[in-house]
Design brief:
The chain is of the alpha/beta class and 337 residues long. Helix 7 links the parallel strand 12 and strand 13. The chain starts with a strand and ends with a strand. Strands 7, 8, 9, 10, 11, 12, 13, 14 and 15 form a 9-stranded parallel beta sheet that branches.
Length: 337
């Protein structure tokens, strides 16, 4: 249920309304924009009488919300959320590009790529330290050593870093990470999501391979329900019957998620297709669809990458892509951050 307040309502009237609601065990989630002030009611609202609420002098209207997600719901928060990633803004017209290797392999590799992507315009450095792989025999990442190398690269370039967490046992290792990524395989790891809800750090949540959009947003709700509302949604392709590419990019997810939720939405075109030459057209489509950013894999030597070389761009190819990104963004009222 949401309550839409009248314009120019006195703070005393709003305070009395809040007080009457909290006394009934209702949790409140407020969103105040230039034109509207909304109070979202979270909890058992069945006993609340809508006509009585409408009669309150501060209330313009009362509506019930049928969707199971509340904090992530655009109805509760009509304006786009902006997530601050250590000074880099994502959402609300701010467009961010996260780029770097699938896996951190060594100091030379990560620093070379970090410098290259920053020079081309990427604002956040991505890199995997803990790597979930389909095969137990594949490279699993450098783990804690990989996190140290990411921090070293950040020191060299000044870029915030984003990297994937695997389970709650590693939370202490991620205290100095700017943005924590939850991968597609962990989208419904609810215990992990609940723990991430307790920290004050941006969370990049990737959509599961077979998840519906409502399931995706409900996973974000788990994090937000714990108190952490700094969530960025990432569409990275879903599993379909198509076999010519790794996954199928659900480009329609961008406008639909924007309708469902106020959270920023970015696209990972690298994982979507798993083919390097497809990254550019998918990135262009993401911007046109309204995405708030891109996550792109870049490797200085893709042919010898320890993971996902086939979908990684070279620094030169990434620079060419960024020139097109920069020329396209103003058409859609986006600013590269």
């Amino acid at each position: 249920m949401i309550i839409i307040l009248k314009k120019n309502t006195s703070e005393e009237q709003v305070h009395l309304l809040r007080q009457s609601l909290t006394q009934k065990g209702i949790k409140l989630h407020e969103s105040e924009g230039e034109q509207t002030h909304i109070i979202g009611l979270i909890g058992d609202t069945k006993s609340l009488d809508m006509d009585s609420l409408r009669a309150h002098p501060a209330v313009e209207d009362v509506r019930r919300v049928s969707e199971p997600y509340k904090k992530a719901n655009r109805t509760f928060h009509p304006t786009d959320s902006i997530v601050d990633c250590s000074g880099i803004l994502v959402g609300g017209g701010n467009f961010a590009v996260m780029a770097g290797p699938c896996s951190v392999e060594c100091e030379e590799q990560i620093t070379e790529v970090a410098r290259a992507v920053k020079q081309s315009g990427a604002s956040i450095l991505r890199g995997g330290a803990f790597k979930p792989r389909t095969s137990p025999y594949s490279f699993q990442g450098l783990r804690a050593d990989g996190l140290d190398l990411l921090r070293y690269a950040r020191k060299q370039t000044g870029q915030p870093i984003v990297t994937e967490i695997m389970n709650t046992e590693h939370l202490e290792l991620f205290e100095d990470v700017d943005v924590i990524q939850v991968g597609a395989r962990n989208m419904q790891n609810f215990e992990l999501l609940k723990e991430l809800g307790k920290i004050d750090k941006p969370i990049l949540l990737k959509r599961g391979l077979c998840a519906t959009l409502e399931e995706f947003v409900m996973s974000a709700e788990y994090i937000m329900a714990g108190g952490n509302e700094k969530v960025i949604l990432c569409e990275r392709g879903i599993r379909t019957f198509e076999t010519s590419m790794r996954n199928t990019l659900d480009i329609s997810a961008v406008p639909m998620l924007k309708k469902m939720s106020h959270l920023p939405v970015i696209i990972d075109p690298s994982h979507a297709a798993g083919i390097s030459w497809m990254v550019e057209p998918l990135a262009m489509a993401a911007i046109a669809a309204g995405a708030d950013g891109l996550m792109i894999e870049v490797h200085n030597d893709p042919a010898h990458a320890l993971s996902d070389g086939a979908q990684s761009l070279t620094p030169t190819a990434f620079d060419q892509l960024m020139q097109k990104v920069k020329s396209l963004l103003p058409i859609f009222d986006k600013t590269l951050n």
